[in-house]
Design goal:
With about 220 residues, the chain is α/β, with parallel strands linked by helices. The protein has two domains: about 1-40; about 45-220, Rossmann fold (3-Layer(aba) Sandwich). It has eight helices and seven strands, in the order ααααβαβαββαβαββ. The protein has a seven-stranded mixed β-sheet with strand order 3-2-1-4-5-7-6, sandwiched between helices. Strand 4, helix 7 and strand 5 form a beta-alpha-beta unit. Helix 4 crosses helix 5. The longest helix has about 35 residues, at about 5-40. The protein is globular and about 65 Å long. The termini are far apart. The model has no long low-confidence stretch (mean pLDDT about 95). It binds S-adenosylmethionine (SAM). S-adenosylmethionine binds near residues 85, 136 and 153. S-adenosylmethionine (SAM) binds near residues 85, 108 and 153.
Length: about 220
Amino acid sequence: MKKVPLFLKIVLIILLSPLILAVVLILLVFNTLARIVRKFWHFPMPEFMAPWIDNKYRHKYVQPPDVMAARHGILPGMKVLEIGPGNATYTIASAERVGPKGSVTAIDIEPKMAERAGRRLKEAGITNAEARVADVYAMPFADNTFDLCYMMMVIGEIPDMRRAVTDIRRVLKPGGLLTFTEILIDPDYPLKSTLIRKVTPLGFKVKQFTGGFVHYTLIFEKA
Ligand SMILES: C[S@@+](CC[C@H](N)C(=O)[O-])C[C@H]1O[C@@H](n2cnc3c(N)ncnc32)[C@H](O)[C@@H]1O
């Protein structure tokens, strides 16, 4: 392949930089506006947006599904609960990680989203995971059912964190894990310190933190 001369590269960078800057600025403005709106108006992410957040760049460079399943603390044989599966990409990876002796139950408050997740699980040939409609405030599960519950980019969409975490604690087994994964570009992104401040008084202790400011995973253990 022909090598691009250095001066041409420099010219290209100079010509493209205003464009790159404009894209970054647009994203910044959009994100800031979305954050302001979300301060006052909470609603679950609409189903048509699922493919936007579930893209190949995220899977390849930021949050590869198999890496995330391990980072969430999921082990073979576990009974896992996922809140807000979106496109179910991470549900599939979790189901593969728990293996045939484990299971994954994904719940979503949006019927269309749960339907989409169920369809994706079926298409992927996953038999140890299911997606159903349920609200995290009052889940249709018995006390002490799950080994681990995880939420990726979900907790910020839920207006009453206390109510949600209280019901999650109820369905977790003693010593069960509650995992949050967050990413800065999400307009509902909570700071790690906010989660620690709000979740620990509800009967959890911090077990593990991975990542940094841009994206992180925070694992709590049921105390
Ligand atoms: C931003 S999407 C995240 C999707 C997926 N976890 C991911 O990271 O690609 C948030 C999901 O949480 C669901 N959700 C919001 N509030 C909920 C609630 N109260 N109970 C259950 N699911 C909820 C939404 O319907 C949506 O599917």
